[in-house]
Design brief:
The chain has 203 residues and is mainly α. It is 70% helix and 0% strand. Helix 2 runs antiparallel to helix 3 and helix 3 runs parallel beside helix 5. The N and C termini lie far apart (91 Å).
């Protein structure tokens, strides 16, 4: 009987670890296999598309977290992650914000556009991403937003963030909100609190 040679063990092992095999495993029914596939997919920019495709359909929290962690390590993923701010899935939106907050370099390039987006929800969520920047840079971006923003919810979010991380440069803009929104007491109160916190921190 002729000897039938199988694939060399090393070749088989290499194939099972290839990016192509990892992409296939991302569609496995087994969450553990999918988590392992995320780690095996690699850290090159070519992994972004496969991870984003998997993320949009993934329902297992542990696997979704693994995918977001992997994407946060890939600078090329910042734009695709930012696109999730428009998702109807709150978990995806929050996951994208948290991932972008861990990658301030790429997020910095996106924020001016995101904070000027036509969608108020995108502007509001983008303000949260600004927390990842140095205080002076975040203050400049959020003050620029406040100077042109007409949506009260977006303004309130930006004010609350400035109350936590803002620098004294924000004080004139915060005080101006009371004049711009004289009938919105909640926003005026939030702005007053922010001014007190910022100026108090300097005393």
């Amino acid at each position: 009987m002729p000897l039938i040679r199988g694939s060399p063990p090393d070749a088989a092992r290499e194939d099972s670890r290839s990016p192509g095999a990892a992409r296939d495993d991302l569609r496995s029914d087994d969450p553990l296999v999918r988590r392992r596939a995320v780690r095996r997919l690699g850290d090159g920019p070519e992994a972004v598309a496969a991870l984003m495709t998997a993320l949009r359909t993934e329902r297992e929290p542990a696997v979704r977290e693994a995918i977001l962690t992997a994407l946060a390590a890939l600078p090329d993923a910042a734009g695709p992650l930012a696109s999730l701010l428009r998702s109807q899935d709150a978990g995806l939106r929050n996951g994208a914000i948290e991932a972008l907050q861990t990658m301030p370099g790429p997020a910095r390039l996106l924020l001016p556009g995101l904070l000027s987006d036509r969608d108020a929800d995108v502007r509001l969520l983008s303000a949260e991403i600004a927390r990842c920047l140095p205080a002076g840079e975040a203050t400049a971006l959020l003050c620029g937003l406040l100077e042109r923003e007409n949506d009260v919810n977006v303004c309130t979010t930006a004010v609350e963030i400035l109350a936590e991380i803002g620098t004294p440069d924000a004080v004139p803009v915060l005080r101006g909100l009371t004049r711009r929104f004289p009938t919105t007491q909640v926003l005026g109160f939030a702005a007053d609190v922010a001014v007190k916190r910022i100026t108090g921190a300097q005393n």
